[in-house]
Amino acid sequence: AAIKDLTRKDTHKCGIEHAAKHGGIYFTQIVHLNVVVISDPHLAAEVLDRTKTPHMIDKPTEPQFYKMMDEGTADPPTPSLISTTNADPYWKIVRKGTSRAFTVNNLRAAFEVSRNMSKRLVTAVKAYGAAKPLDLDAVVQNQAFDVIGEFGFSKDYEATKDLWKGSGAKACMALKNGRMLAYQAEKHQQSKVSLLSIFKDLLQEVQARGSPAEEDNSIAAHLMRTRDDKGQPIPDVRIWSEMYLISQHSEVEAKVLAELESLQLLASPQLPSPRPLEYADLSKLTYLSCCIKESMRLYPVVPMIFRKAMCDQRVGGYVIPKGAFFIVHIMATHSTERHWERAADFLPERWLDPNCEYVRPVDPKSRYVPTGPADIFAADKPGNGKTTVNSSNGHIVADSRAAHRQEHKVKRWFPYGEGNRQCIGMPLARVNLQASIASLLSTFRFKLADEMGGVEGVRMSECYNITLAPEKGLMMHCIPRANHANT
Ligand code: HEM
What we know:
monooxygenase activity; 17 helices; iron ion binding; heme binding; alpha+beta; single chain
């Protein structure tokens, strides 16, 4: 069944279906790989535990996991920041260097870039008109591509200017296609060549600029400044779900609009040009922020992440042998009935509770208890998760961290991952999501195109290519609010 699952375009849904049947941890075999799939938040926390991951659990290097990504970004294929192992000293150096670009101080600059690119997108979508449906998934990716290009590398790709024919839009498309998995290998091969040339050109351009100025805070500048331990320089992201979900829930949309209107940010026939969005507005858009979190719960952009056991592991009372793989199934964790009330429903209000992202500590049901069928590796099963294996001598030792975790908050929502490999671009992604969605929603009303086949059709078109997206785009009519009453 696992091979059949793997060739499904919506292979992410298999993990959700199996988790519903087998629970928060189950074993499967994918080709010849032993894989443990996890969707219980406590067990996910154990696997992604920052103190454990550096040496006991690491990124897998087997070609089944990141080959496509590494091939598309370097020739010869080289592990990128996302696929390097913790054990590789290069990862630590690049992570440290790159993270300097994402400081809180730099977020204002990120907001400026995001606002400018959102403005451009609004202009391009207006010019396109409301009569023909537009692939909203593609155009918001163009916006994100421009933001990352400008904020990260001081490079304006202009993907948001000419949404389809421009060189930036083509580069963005190559990036999208470059992620294609095994069942679309041919498409991936075609994109690989163009993808490689995009990265090569960008690198040449950045190098040709010479040493970055002191005030230059871009990712490129920080990478150029980064040195390894010998003092040598180092060798040579989407938001479709939010727009869709908000547009499908009129009561939610009404609340978002009321929030935008209260801040004079909503376009209408009476106010065709509302005031521009400011950085300070982001923290006031509370309900919009709830909508974004709820969308990322139901449609996490990265539905699963991968790890490998570097030595025997004890997870949730099971002994997982060295060499086994973990899939931490973010999407299944986000949608399990065991941990979420009305898990399948889009309910932004739940996020008004500041503790919504954590497992309810008082709920005894929320603690994972190992049961029969998933007990594949149960050579030793104390069932309390309070022990672990010492990596240096292989001895089982008391795990004070696990006990500590039980008393502290465990996340049931982690769309950006968790632990030492958590998404480094999270601060930028958060600002850009809020700014771009606020800009689009304040200007347009969105209507799902008939060809999408309604809510059911959208659900059926979900496609997993490392990230999650509707297979043939998200076709929507974008109707300017300035021409129509906001009803
Ligand atoms: C909505 C937007 C985004 C989501 C949901 C997202 C999600 C994720 C997740 C789940 C991981 C962890 C992978 C793992 O643990 O195996 C990750 C890693 C990463 N992300 Fe993002 N990401 C987003 C945007 C961005 C942006 C805008 C950037 C950069 C400009 C970025 C750069 C990275 C990098 C470099 C890593 C690897 C970090 C490492 O392994 O040390 N991401 N992302």
